[in-house]
Amino acid sequence: MNRNREVIAQAREVSKSYDEGRIAVLRDVSLAVRAGELVALWGASGSGKSTLLHLLGGLDVPDRGTLRVCDLDPVDERSRLELRRHRLGFIFQLHNLIPDLTVEENLRVPALAVGRGREETAARIRELTTEVGLAHRLGHRIQDLSGGERQRTAICRALVNRPQLLLADEPTGSLDELTGATVFALLKALAERDGIAVVLATHERRFAEACHRIVRVRDGRLEEIAA
Amino acid sequence: MHIFSLICTNLRRHRWRALIGTAGIAFGVAAMLTILAIVTGAIGMFQRILASDSHYLVFERNVSDLFFSSVTREQVAAIRARPEVAAAHPVLFGIVSAPDHPVITCFGIEPDDPRLAKAEWRAGRREDFGSRPDEIFLGARAAEFLGARAGQTLAIGRGSFRVGGVFKTENGFEDGGVFLPLAAAQAFFHRGEAASVVTVQLRDQGEGAAFKGALEAAQPGVIALENREFNSTYNSFKILNFTAWAVGICAFCLGGLGVANTMLLSVFTRIREIAVLRVCGFSGRQVAGLIFGEAAAVAAAGVVAGFVIGFVLLGALERLPQFQGYVQASLQPLVLAGIVGTAFVTAAGGAIYPARFASRIQPAEALRYE
Q: pTM here?
């Protein structure tokens, strides 16, 4: 991986606890993710992987430490909105799509948030769904899709506004082995071909080992191990 | 996809809740529409009784209700003597009773009163009005509910009268009233030679101010009001209007609670989805806008349904034999706009808390419990 590439997301000595400090989830962790990198946050359930993703994505704020994502401070409310709208995309273990909308309508939601034009959005959706093999499913409702198709739709939704950073929280966790592998391959291609920084939280070793870097999350601390 | 289709989808997914909210607004709209239409119609009918072919209305100064007003014969004569006056018609209002009908409006008028000329005579002749002191004339509706025909004798109050004629008027109150010659009415109600009001037709309407000034200076016991002026200042009209709006707004408050309940349930069951919208870039304001949009859609559906219910109800009331003639629904565009406005304000009011709650949902908190 090219070490000269731009740092997209950086956490410095970040700590986060819940229940008024009684449950420490992250302890002084530091991490830098560059453009085009696929970084695995690997660890058991409850180790703090999701919390770190939420902090990087501005969904939560740290108790201590500093965060910088796409040259913005995700703790600041305005920057946070800018990040979510234009700079980063989220993928969850459960796809979190809106069930009664069609694939196309779900993919229009992020464009709706930024007020992007109908035609421009339609072109972007066509491009994305063609790439992931979902172009023939645009008019179908979410409940009519398979697990893999749902997750691919969720990936497309995260990419609609052309983010620089993709935060994927156990995206293969609810999929069978083969479908999981397809989804993982898609994420890897996004990093290597499109230069998107991808942070993948996973407990599955095989996917972690296929990433550019593995950062092990244990007891609220990060440990970089060889990929 | 437009934000509107997202709103429609959300309402469709919770269609029963949305229907309950819609029903709340619809009943509010229907209640307000019906009450206001009836009251406005009733006021309109009363105004037309007073304003029959006239420009000014003269009555006793500082009187609380026109039924208690007394304009003396001398005052009537003074009005007629004014050079600006083309015609002046004294009218005495009273309430009489008949077996099974305790409240019937009675009009004491002179034979040359314009309302007799305009009426459609079903029995008897206009020329006979006032020719016999023991004769009473009936509005067509009154004749119907009293079961009376021309030539019959009718017990009214403590007296008996021969029905001299029956005529149809366009005004529901007049049509359901009984008419006596002015002198007979004055004797019946022990009012001496007084009238309740005098309707005045001027030779030139531009001389209204001169007429009013001169009359009130010469006759300080009376007040002359232009019909338009009277309608806006008469206390009974104000009270009726206020009551109608108050009852309607109370109905709307219930509708507003329905919307609040609908929206709150809708938000509570979609916390996770709203969190995802935030993750996708929706601002707190956009989320609040979505909730307000849903409330507005509920209100719009409620207004349409409410108008349908209200107009059907009014149509039914106008056709009911018991109310026939008395219910003459009348709605001005401004009143309709007021009803629509109240519906939307109520729905928006009901959506304030749900929208505030939704806009403050923290995505991380909501998504933590997968």
A: 0.72
